[in-house]
User: Fold this.
Amino acid sequence: MSPHSELESAVADVIFLGNERKVPLSGLASLTRATPDQAKRALDELKKLGYPLRLSRAGIVERLSFRPIGAQQLTADLTTERIGRRIEWRLHVSSTQDELKRLEDEAEDGAVLLAETQRTGRGRLSRSWFSPTGGIWMSVLLRPSWPRSHQILTLAFAAAVTRAVYSVTKISSLIKWPNDLTIRSRKVAGMLAEATYEGNKLRRLIVGIGVNANINTMRFPGTIRRTSTSLSRELGRDIDRNLLTRRIIEEMDHSYRRFESGHTAELLEEARRLCSTLGRKVRVTTTEGRFICEALDLGDDGQLMARLNSGAVIPLYAADVAHLR
Ligand code: BTN
Assistant:
């Protein structure tokens, strides 16, 4: 974690988790071992992430109304078998992926880490992931025992999130291969799987899930504003983030148990039904370059089977696709 991130986290903790609704900037600075200028810069960063706070001319920092996800209630409500038996909640982190990795040695299969905001949230292909307040940013640590490709598992989790979103909002989302969720062709959620191997054996998988839940999409950086959406934008009102988080964990737990008991064909079939990429002409970007092809099907490991102009059919494991028609 960068020192900026540490200071922002410490400042956010004092303001949003402390007993006092108002704190002098000087007091905030000394509590977080920063200069008043550094504390002010941290406040500015937190504001950009949507934290409701005000700094008066007299140098008083005031917290306005803020409703974090209720992690204790979530733990109490969940009756899942594997995912979510342990839930960790943080206010502001660099990335939930990294925060969960730190707990890795003591964290059991299914441990979940949620944060209200991320400073350096990341997406696939080393892209950054904008993570302001109002989203659902979480990572799940898994130690699967079923020896099949974890790409199936992330596809199955994408399907699980579409089920959860539907159950809370009645909005149908689709999967854009490999595991983006879209509504009206705009991205509403994404997944990131980071695996660690010991030799050939998967030691653990950390799956990150980011859902644009209650986010004013005008907040998004310009580049993604045109291509993304949020559930609140689609619905015209905020959703209950506690409920959606619970439903996501329940649906993921269901898919994980199906995977672990070997029902991968069934999971793949569901992913095929939801996958909007199949049957389309797509532009593929891989580490080796870009090309146009036709997306035919999902292979047995969740790979995209694509037909090149030459007629050859190739499997794509790690790539980004843009739908052309
Ligand atoms: C993508 O679509 O490229 C994947 C986005 C994954 C974002 C989530 S948010 C929670 C977790 N922590 C991160 O830093 N990234 C993932």
